[in-house]
Amino acid sequence: MKRSLQIGGAFVGLIVGAGFASGQEIMQYFTSFGLMGILGGIIATAAFAFLGMALAQLGSKLQTSSHKGVIYHIGGPYIGFVLDFLITFFLFGVAVVMFAGAGSTFHQMFGINPMLGSIIMVAATICTLLLNVKNIINLIAVITPYLMVVIFIILIYSIFTMDISFTEANEMAQTQSAAASNWIVGALLYVSYNIAAGAAMLIVMGGTEKDRKVAGLGGAFGGLMLGALIILINLAMFMKMDAVAGVDMPTLELANQIHPAVGVLMAIALLGMMYNTAVGMFYAFTVRFVEPDHKAFKPAIVIIGLAGFGASFVGFTTLVGKVYSTMGYLGFALIIAVIIAWMRKDNRPSRAEVTIKNQAGHLE
């Protein structure tokens, strides 16, 4: 159970930077549809739980240190090639978005030059990636409980200080900019781009666990926690729609309304989320080309990290618009492939399971 919770916590820590960093993502994909956005959150929770379980189990089954083996396993040589290319491209793209976002956050919260903020994030990411993958998983998982506590504080505050009726909140919510034509498409697009971003590292995390049930349970736990965060943040913003309507970073606005100290805690959480996502994305991107125990791995981390820093100068807003919108639709191809692979119900034992059984036979 402990190992499953670690994988689940790391899954959440990996995704939150890309999907929760400002609250604006939840606003556009859920809250902007009013009360129906709550149903969208429930759909997203179920989808995250299933896909998290399936991807982690596939990683465990194939005992892979890169997403490549799993992607070709579920997609075959042709579809697998396309999915592999898309995922690898998005890994780098999301990490670059996090570098640019860190620069913007440091500037907005603390008045630090955006370039310096990005340099701090790049340096922290490179240093972390010099650790082994199990240490990375443990490190990424640490921020999840902290984030949950901050979100619960904001939610409780929103419930007890709601100044408008549900009808008024619903009407105001539907005037906000939406990322999709309706709440169902919004929920599915949200899951799609987050899974496209997080699939590779979740597969790698699953590959560190030999027991497929433990890995699958961890992926499911992570999906349920992500769903809980979506619903909680959505409710908090819906109840305080009069305060967050039109605000770029709604969760930070709510935190600042409680107390400046809570605002600082939220700012730290935002940077922590971006850091988690940057670490996960760059690790998964690098191991796609270089094995983690190869002597070229560490130099590759530094070179790729510096390349990401250079790419971050395109700008946070531009990167979010270009990378995320593309990921949302193309990510459906990955989701369909994962569902088909799961429906095959391939019960052949993994390499790890064969080894364990052989060892047991020798002992007898």
Automatic annotation (TrEMBL):
Domain of life, per lineage: Bacteria
Q: Does the keyword field hold Magnesium?
A: no
Q: Which residues cross the membrane?
A: 33-56, 77-100, 112-132, 139-160, 180-204, 216-238, 258-285, 297-320, 326-343
Question: What PANTHER family does UniProt report for this protein, alphabetically?
Answer: CONSERVED MEMBRANE PROTEIN, MEMBRANE PROTEIN
Source organism per UniProt: Lysinibacillus odysseyi 34hs-1 = NBRC 100172
> In its UniProt entry, what is this protein called?
Membrane protein
Q: Which keywords appear in this protein's UniProt record, sorted alphabetically?
A: Membrane, Transmembrane, Transmembrane helix
Q: Which InterPro entries match?
A: YkvI-like
Q: Which residues form a coiled coil?
A: none
